[in-house]
Design goal:
It contains nine helices and seven strands. By secondary structure, the protein is of the alpha/beta class.
Length: 251
Amino acid sequence: MSAASKHIVVTGASRGIGRAVAVACGARGWRVVVNYARDAEAAQDTVRAAIAAGGQALAVQADVSDEAQTRALFAAADAAYGPLDGFVANAGIVAPVGRFLDMDAARWRRLFEVNVVGLMVSTQEAARRMVLSRGGPGGSVVLISSAAARLGSPDMYVDYAASKGAVDTLTLGLGRELCADGVRVNGVRPGIIDTDIHAAAGEPDRAARMAPGLPMRRAGRAEEVAEAVAFLLSDASSYMTGAILDVTGGR
């Protein structure tokens, strides 16, 4: 398919990095399904921005931690835009900053249900549609990890870091497993990016506070991460699979 006709599903696209990815896809003339869990108004705002950038877009509600909702998301994408060309597994959560010794298993289960199991179910749905052996067109999957996967996030959220470590490993394995079947799988590891994920962890000023200590002396922007994702979705990265790009300002 031509670049102008690409059909991309982005999970967690109502805000932050996911929103920026959806808009970047729109800017390339692609058709993008904007997935969101709860905030319909924010998702519609993303849709408007992606359309204004030059693409087509629609919002579809689904909580990726719910398998039935995830499968319904892809059915809706099929009905709207036909064969799938790309998927961005961006939806994820973080829990409040804390030490490992004070965490409980309920917190861990929720983190892994969304960040690992939900990501795997949604990736499976996407890959089943794209692999050549099942009649798909081939395509590209981008899994959103975090620099926390290699830094460990001690005294903050080692559980979140562990969940993203699983994403890194999945990227390496699936990148090699699916490439001969027409699907490339790569990852992006953002560093300190100025989004509201820090507020969700109880540290809304974290990006500004850490910026002076970063090699580039500033936090990153969601749009900078989105450009890396769009590159991996595009044909320009045709010989890349199982790769993980750090978008961390040198951190």
